[in-house]
Amino acid sequence: MHAKSLKSRLLCLAGGAALVLAALTGAHGSAEAKSSLSLGMVLEPPHLDATAGAAAAIDEVVYQNIFQGLTRIGPDGSVQPSLAKSWDVSEDGMTYRFHLQKGVVFHDGTPFSAEDVKFSIDRARAEGSVNAQKPLFAAIDEVVVVDPETVDIKLTTPSGNLAYNLAWGDAVIVSPKSAESNKTKPIGTGPFKFDRWMKGQEIRISRFDGYWGDQPQLDKASFRFISDPNAAFAAMISGDLDAFPTFSAPETIAQFEADPRFEVAIGTTEGETILAMNNTRGPLKNKMVRQAISHAINKQALIDGAMFGLGTPIGTHFAPHHPAYNDLTGLYPYDPAKAKELLAKAGYADGFSATLKLPPPTYARRGGELIASDLKKVGIDLKIIPVEWAQWLSEVFKETNYDFTIVSHVEPMDIGIYAREKYYFNYNSDAFKNVIEELNVTVDEEKRYELLKQAQQIISDDAVNVYLFQLAKSGVWNANVKGLWRNSPTPGNDLSQVHWANN
Amino acid sequence: MLWFAFLRLIGLLTTLLAASLVIFVVLEVIPGDPAEVMLGLNAQPDTLAALRAELGLNAPVSTRYVNWVLGMLQGDFGISYTYSVPVAELIGERIQISLPLATGALILSTIIAIPIGVYSARYHGKIIDTGIMSVAQIGIAIPNFWIAILLVYVFAIVLRVLPSGGFPGWEVSFFGSLQALILPVVALALPQASILARVMRSALLDVLHEDYIRTARAKGLSNKATLWRHGVRNALIPVLTILGLQFSFLIAGTVIIENLFYLPGLGRLIFQGITQRDLIVVKSSVMLLVALTIFVTFLVDIAYAAIDPRLRRRV
Fold first, then answer.
1. Residue of A nearest to B48 (CA)
2. Which of A13, A24, A227 sits opposite B259 (nearest CB)?
3. Contact B162 A18 (CB under 8 A)
4. pLDDT tens by residue, B25-73
5. Distance (Å, rounded) from C-alpha A396 to C-alpha A342?
6. Which CATH class is domain B88-313?
7. Would an 8 Å CB–CB cutoff place B70 in contact with chain A?
8. What is the CATH number of domain A3-22+35-45+186-268+475-500?
9. Which Gene Ontology molecular function entries are recorded, alphabetically (chain A) (predicted)?
10. pTM for this predicted structure
11. Angle at CA B39, nearest 5°, toward B34 and B44?
12. Closest to A276 (Cα-Cα) out of A359, A191, A343, A154
């Protein structure tokens, strides 16, 4: 009774305040023809230089809007031409020749040429460079300018990945004139130029008239940073925002689906969400224990419970939408009895206790609770330790001081991490390393897929980690907005094709 | 009066220095490396080392502390690790939201609370007093973010007369910026007003029992004049104390409200700074807040002395 009377009182008060300020309140969110787009993002990028940071938020603003690479990743995940209109590979697979687009200028008017390509790639792979994805350039021996429109990239070993690697946001082409100031004032060759950044609030970009390709249909776009899920919901439903491509409140998705003003797009990402295990710690050294844990977790219940049903089960560390995906979801079906049996065989009939360190994302915090309860049923007692992201990076990732953790590996095509020395799972398999080595020097597509499937099989057989689900991308936008990507094969919000349907 | 102010000032500077040391040490101790946060999972050791050198993280602790304090004394708050812009610039942008937000909420809560408190004290024990005070009690108990969600629901989603959040910027749209602050100001002010009204009422009740009130009435002053001239004025000291505390809370403690309305204020700057380990931003903003809080406390002290001449001699 109190609550009700209070509510009405508060409303009266608030209503009074609004009346006093009646002059200030006007019609909000008008429906005139639009050529601008306001787009919500959960995290604000730390800066805007895609070649100097790992934050996905950087790419979500600049990739393919402001900055472009020699190649690009298309909406379906395929490698497509961008600043390079075509490329040939020499017969020995050691030299890639890129033919560049003509008439390209940077946003500050500087013409683009092969020199810029050489500068950008050499800068990224140089000693002392702060590029977060330096391994992308590991195979490159030399970048040679043939003429202003042609560039050769010479390799130390044949690399089947080069065209794909150069499509990453971390490999975009920058101009020597503006490279140092790109963090705060990014200058690229893309269809949009940077306007202003109100820190903590929004970044604005607008159409670049000197763009070499087809002009985009949007005049202006703004990226607004809304980290609170309630606020994100309110901003979308009230029409303050036009789109939220990676929506942060899955529990409200159903409400948007029921509302004809909105379109809901559930797509895929490159985010393999795993329960990572420290393969050199205590009972986890034993493959049978790891297999038991894989059997003990009900993955579908996890997707339903922690992610409101959004997510695709995976059986290995690979994106299910990729043609080389090996469906191994049947390898460790949910079977607590089998799990107990395996644990007993391994000598842990009474179970054991361990810690589970959880970083802040919802999938980890919510998923962690469910996993702890699943594992309790087979006798494994998990102590949950919530950690901040920075703490996770140093304690779990760098020092590998953990037993279990949950994290989503969002980098595309990253199965190679299992071949790395001292990577945080502490997995060490010569069989796997051999497959990856062979993969790196294989150019033939069919052969590559075969090797990728083998690699997936090895890590799943070894139950290195528990492969939980592929993170879904749940986007919500105004039903009249067309051309946004439904899937997220790489972090980014390519706005070049976006337009309003009712114009 | 001047001597009083001088002594306060010395105490104030000592507090600031102590605070700077505590802030610095605490941030040195917490785990997490800014370079790791920025470069993520695929960073190579040489890349991390290069970035650490670039950020100036390799110097010894004592050197960094001294440089930081000396820099601040000269108005140089350092360069943000993540944003790569001067921290002073970031704080300058954020204060344009936090200051109006805090001031607005303080003014609104005062406007609501003082008359209600006075009214309630005057009709002490009557039904109206009991009624007002129980509403105030609930107002204290309800968190401001809940009020915020309710306000957004009513004014942004159902009525659509105000934006659900965001801040266009004063120079872009003064009108729009004012609009953007209405709901957050109301959400912040209501719980504060509830507290203030209760303090006003009880302070006034204490005063109304004093002998000089009877004297004032006896010499022929009207009820109303006695109440305002002799009652309210003497009851203001505890109210001022609470106002001082509330301002400090409002300027720094609004991070939840800022998040809900996605306003780029100081609270959110610090929050983001902590999660991204942009320690220089955290250090300098927290230092600024400490300075601001101390300054407000100083002002309140001075205001006491202005209201009550007896306090000037007591120091």
1. A130
2. A227
3. yes
4. 988 887 778 888 888 777 778 888 888 888 878 888 888 899 889 988 8
5. 27
6. mainly alpha
7. no
8. 3.40.190.10
9. peptide transmembrane transporter activity
10. 0.82
11. 115
12. A359
